[in-house]
Amino acid sequence: MSPTPPVTRFAPSPTGALHIGGARTALFNWLYARGHGGTFLLRIEDTDIARSNPENTQVILDGLRWLGLDWDGEPVSQATRADRHAEVAHQMLAAGSAFKCFSTPEEIESFREKARGNKESTLFRSPWRDVPEAAHPDAPYAVRLKAPRDGSTTLHDTVQGDVTWSNDQLDDMILLRSDGTPVYMLAVVVDDHDMGVTHVIRGDDHLSNAFRQNMIYDAMGWAKPVLAHIPLIFGADGKKLSKRHGATAAADYQKMGFPAAGMRNYLARLGWSHGDDEFFTDDQAKAWFDLDGIGKSPARFDLKKLEHVSGQHIAASDDAALLEELEAYLAVTGAVPLTERQRDGLLRAMPHLKERAKTFPDIIEKAHFILIDGPIVPDEKSAAQLDAVAQQYFTELTPHLQNVTWDRTALEEAIAAFATAHDTKLGKLAGPLRAALAGRSVSPSVFDMMLVLGRDETLSRLRAFSA
């Protein structure tokens, strides 16, 4: 009998941008579901009405789409399911696994202040836990879950192993507030159950929550998901990744010009490994990814390694697909859209542009010779190459190129013969030629540019700087 396909979920709170850590969590859930023939769901945990907003939700969706992490079905809004969450709390209340607590916020804070003063535990024990219904006042109440008071609870985590928590450290947590609204901890469990989630893959900062959520599963008699709490991402200095380390939002890396495939590859390697493999395709990642490959130690985000992997993916990308993603990069950075002439030139030049490029800005810099309109305006370094000697060379060279076969071999032979005739070397001509054709020192090779530009445009640029 084949195993049941897994159901995973990514459940971000729309209180800010998609953090790089959240992007990796989404990736791990996506890889596990896609690699095991399962389902990847998206739930927007928007119960924090004051901090959640549609704009942040859209930013998260856009970030996931940029990363290529497609989800199944429509995103679920947690806030719209409040009635269902409350229904489950009342079921626990009716079953006796939860109780009504009439303690006021002032009473609870007074207890905690006194406990802090006595250096005692501030874990609140409600005096209403075992009070019969007949003795209840006619007053607002919260619904609390009856936590076990003795012994301990052990949860098995696929990444962390067996983790044990002493039950005397568990409070009778609130399920419904006194205004009847459900708390986040209840909503998560109800939604995971109702959505059929089989594997909860999330950051290990949620590990303590698992013990509180486990009480709800026990109270309801529901099947529990497989747990996999993954290590956090640290900066290169070994501290939790934050803005002091640079960009922390996924959208920032799109605007920096990293290709999505490179980002997926690099994020997959943060905390997970498959042997010594550093570079791999999506298909390989889906086939290889499993929970037992996730380590316990925090991963360190290294921008240089990201650039290296990014460059490998750019080099391996299909030219047309790369051009499409480059245009998306230009759009998010507010750049002027490409003209048809520029698109055509970029596509023809892409095999040369993507060599050794690590980001899209690298490609654009090398593509300056294609993107410019009008006469070449050389930068300072290139202008120094266009001296009187170079200008005289161009005057004599252009007739030689007028009738030569326009392929790489013929061009190389013609220019090599010209260099020999003028008692110079091909390398001595390359600088001035590059300056005249691109106006920049960073470009593809002179011959690659000539082939992309074609005979007429090449000769026109050389004549512009002839004596």
From TrEMBL:
| Residue ranges annotated as motif 'HIGH' region | 12-22
Q: What is one process in the GO biological process aspect for this record?
A: glutamyl-tRNA aminoacylation
Q: Motif 'KMSKS' region located where?
A: 240-244
GO CC annotation terms, alphabetical: cytosol
Q: Does the keyword ATP-binding apply?
A: yes
> Which superkingdom heads the taxonomic lineage of this protein's source?
Bacteria
Supply the InterPro entries for this chain. Answer: aa-tRNA-synth_I_cd-bd (IPR045462), aa-tRNA-synth_I_codon-bd_sub2 (IPR020751), aa-tRNA-synth_I_CS (IPR001412), aa_tRNA-synth_I_cd-bd_sf (IPR008925), Glu-tRNA-ligase_bac/mito (IPR004527), Glu/Gln-tRNA-synth (IPR000924), Glu/Gln-tRNA-synth_Ib_cat-dom (IPR020058), GluQ/Sye (IPR049940)
Q: Where is the Aminoacyl-tRNA synthetase class I anticodon-binding domain?
A: 322-464
Please describe the quaternary structure of this protein.
Monomer.
Name the HAMAP family for this protein: Glu_tRNA_synth_type1
Q: Which family does it belong to?
A: Belongs to the class-I aminoacyl-tRNA synthetase family. Glutamate--tRNA ligase type 1 subfamily.
According to UniProt, the name of this protein is Glutamate--tRNA ligase
The organism of origin for this protein: Loktanella atrilutea
- Gene that specifies this protein: gltX
